[in-house]
Design brief:
This protein has about 280 residues and is an alpha+beta fold. It is built from 6 helices and 15 strands. β11, α3 and β12 form a beta-alpha-beta unit. The chain binds 2,6-di-O-phosphono-beta-D-fructofuranose. 2,6-di-O-phosphono-beta-D-fructofuranose binds next to loops.
Length: about 280
């Protein structure tokens, strides 16, 4: 696994350089889910694919920017799914963005996940890994990632990050979000999944939700590229991660690489509140 983590670190550094130094310019292609694709998404994707192609232990990669998975080393062990630059529309207003990785032993199913990693491109370059039961935080300083504290979520937090268009929320979801605010939770939502979940993780807990809505019953966030890695990280940190039926996200099948699911990630207290509001026994 060490060479895989090294490749992720090299990619993070190179993507950070690209974000800092490249002109912002819109490409004329669309990604697989129809969003406009920024030039930086494409560059980040190329950087990551190039770094993984040097690692013989990496059997195949699947990118959020591509329709199909790609085989790199047929004899390799690891299958890696990644979102090269999540929240890239936030770059033109200089908010934080991130890269998300899920590392699998075997096919791309949550039950096969061995490790998950995300990188935050913010005022600083940071990385969080979940591997072998621990969630570790790293900050990039003087040319390398330096390990910080181990991360554990509290039983209950203070932050509420509610995604989705409010006019399309179902009444029970509105009740959940308003109930948390009525308990004193504070709104923290940038529109970037990586920094929004990073903030909740580092500040002790809360709830990030991206529900099914009347216009998007299956939510927006992709299981393989966004939801599974964060579910793995949150559970490893002592939190909970479920869908709108209260099922563990890590137990959901993935039938299509670009499949989405409603998701609720947080500390245990807030996820319990979600179950109550959604009428899940
Ligand atoms: P983006 O569309 O900017 O790439 O899945 C992508 C994502 O951002 C997440 O990072 C973010 O949490 C979510 O979409 C934000 O969606 P809304 O704008 O609907 O809140």
């Amino acid at each position: 696994m060490k060479p895989v983590f090294d490749a992720i670190e090299h990619s993070a550094h190179r993507i950070s350089e690209a974000i800092t130094n490249e002109d912002l310019c819109y490409g004329d292609s669309c990604n697989a889910t129809g969003d406009m694709q920024l030039k930086l998404d494409i560059q980040s994707d190329l950087i990551i694919a190039e770094e993984f192609s040097k690692i013989t232990a990496v059997k195949a990669i699947a990118s959020e920017e591509k329709e199909e998975a790609e085989t790199l080393h047929p004899e390799g062990r690891f299958m890696i799914a990644y979102d090269p630059l999540d929240g890239s529309s936030l770059i033109d207003v200089d908010l934080s963005v991130g890269t998300i990785y899920g590392i699998y032993d075997g096919e791309f199913q949550a039950k096969n996940m061995l490790a998950a990693v995300y990188v935050v491109h913010g005022p600083r370059l940071e990385m969080v890994t979940a591997y072998k039961g621990g969630v570790r935080h790293y900050i990039f300083r003087h040319g390398r990632f330096m390990e910080q504290e181990t991360i554990r979520l509290g039983e209950k937090g203070k932050l509420n990050a509610p995604g989705g268009t409010q006019m399309h929320w179902y009444p029970h979801h509105k009740k959940l979000i308003e109930g948390l605010f009525a308990e004193g939770y504070r709104l923290r939502y940038s529109g970037g999944m990586v920094p929004d979940l990073h903030q909740i993780l580092l500040k002790g807990g809360g709830l990030f939700s991206y529900p099914g809505t009347t216009d998007k019953p299956n939510g927006k966030l992709r299981k393989l590229f966004e939801v599974f890695p964060f579910a793995y990280i949150y559970e490893t940190a002592g939190g909970a991660a479920v869908d709108d039926k209260g099922r563990r996200l890590m137990e959901l099948p993935c039938d299509d690489p670009h499949e989405t699911t409603p998701c609720f990630l947080g500390s245990k207290y807030e996820v319990e509140k979600m179950r109550e509001a959604y009428g899940i026994g």
